[in-house]
Amino acid sequence: MTATDRSIELIHTAAQAAADKLAHDIIAYDVSDVLSITDAFLLASAPNDRQVKSIVDEIEERLQKELGAKPVRREGDRDARWILLDYVDIVVHVQHSEERVFYALERLWKDCPELDLPEDAKATRGKAAEHAELQAAEESADLGGDWR
Questions:
Q1: C-alpha dist (Å) from residue 67 to 39, 70, 108
Q2: What one-character-per-residue DSSP string does 107-119 give?
Q3: What percentage of residues in the chain have a pLDDT greater than 90?
Q4: How far apart are CA 59 and CA 83, in angstroms?
Q5: What are the pLDDT digits (tens) for 86-128?
Q6: CA-CA distances (angstroms) from residue 31 to 7, 83, 86, 89, 134?
């Protein structure tokens, strides 16, 4: 069994929306062979809570406007560290970068086939690591400043 055309259409639209809001490391898996509750997972992350919420809001708005899809469930809004949007056909996970590393959902689904995504979404791979390196360099520069 593979993800339906509708699921792939939802994944592509959601991935593009996430990329447009500068999400990091966007990836999608076809989980239809191992789960009966959904066809696909989309994973994305961001370096802060505000951006996590912004990405989720954009995904929700685009899927509603372009495809007439509304989530049946939205969880995690209060802390905005890991927000889940359940569209039945797909489930979208947008995580704070720290949660993404800690929970490592990619490790759980690595045996499932990856779904092809729009080029903008593919271009986000490795962005979380780049961001972390930049942030570390900035913090190091701040600590090495003149203390007089």
A1: 17, 9, 29
A2: HHHTTSPBPP--H
A3: 77
A4: 12
A5: 999 999 999 999 999 999 999 999 999 999 999 999 999 887 7
A6: 11, 19, 14, 10, 34
Q: What is the value of pTM for the model shown?
A: 0.88
- Rounded to whole angstroms, what are the CA distances from 73 to 41, 114, 130? 14, 24, 32
Q: Which residue has the higher pLDDT, 61 or 129?
A: 61
Cα 146 from chain centre: 40
Q: Rounded to an integer, what distance in angstroms lies between the CA atom of residue 61 and that of residue 127?
A: 24
Of 36, 49, 38, 44, the closest CA to residue 6 belongs to 38
- Number of residues that make up the chain: 148
Partners of 30 in the β-ladder: 40
Strands 73-75 and 82-86, sheet pairing: antiparallel
